[in-house]
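Renewal narrative, Specific Aim 1. Our central claim is that a sequence can be written position by position from structural information alone. The example that follows is taken directly from our test logs and has not been curated for this report. It begins with the structure tokens describing the chain, in the order in which they were read.
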């Protein structure tokens, strides 16, 4: 339970947050800025104009690329690394959500690295330096705007890089910016947001009781804001709540400091997402209830505690396994209320692919997945069958 917590990240929050871009960039004395995004929203929201104005004021040129896609690809990162090197880029700015941010983070560590940037994701090498990265958030949910994580895909292989080196130097969060986000993507991000409070909650080892209470409160707030979002996606107050929860939930996992986090759900979803190009939050919604129902048969304690404290599952009325099942049911209801699929067949994932996913995740049965109740190959197959 010994640890050091530190995050070199400046968060500027509010409906005028973008007005601070020039002062946020100034300490880095940029001369060549690479702007990364994934659609016309940067023009519709005025973000592009804001970036150009700030760069002009600082005497910096701007290069840009708007080709980022969900489940971002290594091929674009390689292209951008070459572009950045050829143009002496010294600052990377990303606008959007996790896909844009993760792309920017990968380019940041890729430029100073002598080899192929994928080496840093497959574990061949550890990054030792990065170009500074700043982000402008247009969709809440992933927490990538303040996190030490980037997820990339090469072919069907999806990998995560985790290092404090890639925490963005600053994040601009204007809740007005998420008003143009398509409902499907925001609903998926809202699901991911709620689950972000659960991965650290599901722990079998020593942990800080105060962290349980903080995570429970964040989870309740995420469920409440999610329901309000589903009822009125344009409500600014609700989107403000979601943006703040996003930044709070994954600020280098500070709510989970001192414990071993689970991450079973994310690891299973990353493999499904890589194999079938599923939107991350949609994959989360389709498998988490089944994970809880399955694992709850042998390790229901943490699920039961959460069900008691959040959904009133009185331990005198419910066995631990019954309480775990109640938690799964309530989560499934929440995901359905957001309009998300809650099974694999709804996502058009073929049943025939389940064993392949399990083989890849477990190295053909040689390793396990997750920390709360580690899953072997047969467990993974059983969960995915249950989720089908």
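The sequence written for that structure reads:
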């Amino acid at each position: 339970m010994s640890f050091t917590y530190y995050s070199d990240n400046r968060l500027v929050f509010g409906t005028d947050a973008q007005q601070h871009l020039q002062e946020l960039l100034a300490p880095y004395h940029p001369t060549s800025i690479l702007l990364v995004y994934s659609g016309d929203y940067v023009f519709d929201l005025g973000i592009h104009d804001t970036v150009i104005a700030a760069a002009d004021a600082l005497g910096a040129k701007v290069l840009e690329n708007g080709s980022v896609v969900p489940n971002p690809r290594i091929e674009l990162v390689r292209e951008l690394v070459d572009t950045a090197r050829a143009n002496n880029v010294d600052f990377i700015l990303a606008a959007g959500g996790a896909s844009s941010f993760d792309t920017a983070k990968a380019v940041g560590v890729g430029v100073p690295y002598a080899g192929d940037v994928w080496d840093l994701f497959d574990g061949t090498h550890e990054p030792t330096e990065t170009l500074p990265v700043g982000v402008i958030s247009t969709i809440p949910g992933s927490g990538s705007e303040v996190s030490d994580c980037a997820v990339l895909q090469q072919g069907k292989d999806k990998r995560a890089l985790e290092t404090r080196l890639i925490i963005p130097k600053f994040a601009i969060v204007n809740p007005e910016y998420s008003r143009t986000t398509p409902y499907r993507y925001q609903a998926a991000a809202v699901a991911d947001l709620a689950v972000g409070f659960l991965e650290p909650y599901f722990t079998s080892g020593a942990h800080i009781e105060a962290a349980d209470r903080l995570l429970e409160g964040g989870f309740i707030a995420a469920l409440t804001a999610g329901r309000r979002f589903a009822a009125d996606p344009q409500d600014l107050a609700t989107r403000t709540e979601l943006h703040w929860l996003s930044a709070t939930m994954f600020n280098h996992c500070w709510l989970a400091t001192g414990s071993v986090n689970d991450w079973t759900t994310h690891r299973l979803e990353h493999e499904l997402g890589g194999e079938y190009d599923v939107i991350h939050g949609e994959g989360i919604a389709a498998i988490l209830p089944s994970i809880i129902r399955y694992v709850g048969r042998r390790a229901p304690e943490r699920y039961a505690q959460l069900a008691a404290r959040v959904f009133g599952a009185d331990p005198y009325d419910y066995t631990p396994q019954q309480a775990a099942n109640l938690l799964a049911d309530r989560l499934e209801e929440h995901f359905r209320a957001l309009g998300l699929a809650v099974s694999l067949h709804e996502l058009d994932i073929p049943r025939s692919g389940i064993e392949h996913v399990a083989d890849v995740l477990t190295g053909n049965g040689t390793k396990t997945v997750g920390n709360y109740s580690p899953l072997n190959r047969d467990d993974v197959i059983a969960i995915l069958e249950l989720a089908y």
